Amino acid sequence: MKNNEQLFERAQRSIPGGVNSPVRAFRSVGGTPRFIERAEGAYFWDCEGTRYIDYIGSWGPMILGHSHPAVTQAIRDAAVRGISFGAPTEAEVEMAELLIKLVPSMEQVRLVSSGTEAAMSAVRLARGAAGNGERRKIIKFEGCYHGHADSLLVKAGSGLLTFGNPSSAGVPADVTQHTLVLDYNDAEQLEQTFAAYGDDIACVIVEPIAGNMNLVRATPEFLDVMRTQCSRHGALLIFDEVMSGFRVGLGGAQSLYAIDPDITVLGKVIGGGMPLAAFGGKRAVMQHLTPIGRVYQAGTLSGNPVAVACGLATLTEIQRPGFYESISDITKKLVDGLTAAARRSARSAGKEGDHGLAFSGDSLGGMFGIYFAADVPRRYADVIACDIERFKRFFHAMLVRGIYLAPSAYEAGFVSMAHDSAAIDATIAAAELAFADIG
Ligand SMILES: *Cc1c(COP(=O)(O)O)cnc(C)c1O
């Protein structure tokens, strides 16, 4: 009989930290990662045969739930025809046409294999296309994640208008010196930064609904000011919708906020669980890419036929009428149930009012945030002020009850169409007991 502990021991010998992406390691919550063997619908099973209700959904892509029959069939059919050609296919054109149709601001698009690659390419494209192609600076926001390209692995330094400091070893400060890191939802600071550096700013990159510092919504004002400032100063606006795209609604955050970015970055849901991502935008901007323009970008496996087939099958399902109403309802029911359970637990422990259990939640489409704080966070500082120790205890109290939440207080949660009332009710019932456990 296999077990997680032994597999983790073995994994650590051949793989740094035993995992191929750091958040899988359970390091921020402690404990042993679960080694998953199979998945179906809202559930996955680890190597010990334990079943979990899955609220990470491969960190966003699995919006239909696991092993959706239409998706699995599409992958099989594509694989039989050939796995990769390194030459164009009709399915890639179909995918491009569909993305352009569904994402309001996009006129052309290029397919790549990961969100990191898409965001990195979008920034290079913006620098090549903005102004005379010689602008150096980019603006990003603390708490937003855009993959692990050098110039985007940056945290705020000290001081108001801050030049970024590398947030990873191996990234020289020379590389990040042109990345300005600002506060999310601070429109005034953004205006000041444009006033100071406007003619050297190539682009602003933002998660219009942030999902990498838990879930934090942008205020409409913040995004409006961003659009206006970019246009006024000739900078390009990049919406990184790798997470929010096809997750919060069919047209992504840009359709919810009615903002028209110059470039959009997509990933996660568009691949339905296979390695597929994209960046696209206005035709005049996209024409700067090689082979027609001078901004270089390429990829051996870009537009891989099996990944594209998986993505197309996924995008077909989510276009069914009522899909986003349903998934929003399911997700809201979950978050409302969790907050009510937290309140009941506080009441029975006699901790109501200001000294009560600080817990809140928010959701948009099939994405949610739960916070060990009295109010839903609006910026990065609010997120890091949440009670992380209580989150850790809650995470483990849920895990032992078969509920798999993101093993970090800084990640959003994901619901799929396969999460039926039975799964949601079981989760809320488990939370009731978990809250009682953690006191
Ligand atoms: C996940 C994510 C990325 C990185 O995508 P990968 O496929 O993991 O490289 C970039 N931006 C956002 C907003 C993301 O959520």
Per CATH, the architecture of the largest domain is 3-Layer(aba) Sandwich
Uncertain segments of ≥5 residues (pLDDT<50)? none
Specify the oligomeric state: single chain
Name the CATH superfamily classification of the largest domain.
Type I PLP-dependent aspartate aminotransferase-like (Major domain)
Structural class: alpha/beta
CATH level 3 topology of the largest domain: Aspartate Aminotransferase, domain 2
Q: Report the total helices.
A: 14
Span between N and C termini? Answer: 35 Å
Q: Biggest sheet, in brief?
A: 8 strands, mixed
Helix content: 25-40%
> What Rg, in angstroms, do the CA atoms define?
22 Å
How much of the polypeptide forms β-strand, as a percent range? 15-25%
Please, could you describe this protein's structure?
- With 439 residues, the chain is an alpha/beta fold.
- It has two domains: 4-67 and 321-438, Aspartate Aminotransferase, domain 1; 69-318, Type I PLP-dependent aspartate aminotransferase-like (Major domain) (Aspartate Aminotransferase, domain 2), CATH 3.40.640.10.
- 38% of the residues lie in helices and 16% in strands.
- The chain has helices at residues 4-14, 69-81, 90-102, 115-129, 173-176, 187-197, 220-233, 252-257, 283-286, 305-318, 323-348, 380-384, 388-399, 421-438, and strands at residues 36-40, 43-46, 51-54, 108-112, 137-141, 154-155, 162-163, 165-166, 179-182, 201-206, 209-210, 216-217, 236-240, 263-266, 277-281, 360-364, 367-371, 403-404, 413-414.
- The strands form five sheets. It has an eight-stranded mixed sheet with strand order 4-15-14-13-10-5-9-7, with helices on both faces. Strands 1-2-3-18 form a four-stranded mixed sheet. Strands 16-17-19 form a three-stranded antiparallel sheet, covered by helices on one side.
- Strand 16 and strand 17 (367-371) form a beta hairpin.
- It is globular and about 65 Å long.
- The model has no long low-confidence stretch (mean pLDDT 95).
- Bound molecules: pyridoxal-5'-phosphate.
- Pyridoxal-5'-phosphate is lined by residues 114-116, 119, 145-147, 207, 211-212, 240, 242-243, 267, 277.
